[in-house]
Amino acid sequence: MRRSTTSDVRKKDTREKIELGGLIVKAGLRYEKRALLLGLLIDAAARLKGDAQERSRLAALGAEAFGERDD
Question: Which keywords appear in this protein's UniProt record, sorted alphabetically (predicted)?
């Protein structure tokens, strides 16, 4: 039973990582260097801390890219 649970956790983790990689591709950043991608994410995380307006702006941008418009 424990082995099955560990396997399920690993599968879930792998699936999540694949989905996150898909976001990089969808954003058009597939061929950028990893250091640049990590820098972008670190910068974005820092800018989001305590800035609800920026978080909202970026969430709207992402929702539009997914085709989820709030019209």
Answer: Plasmid
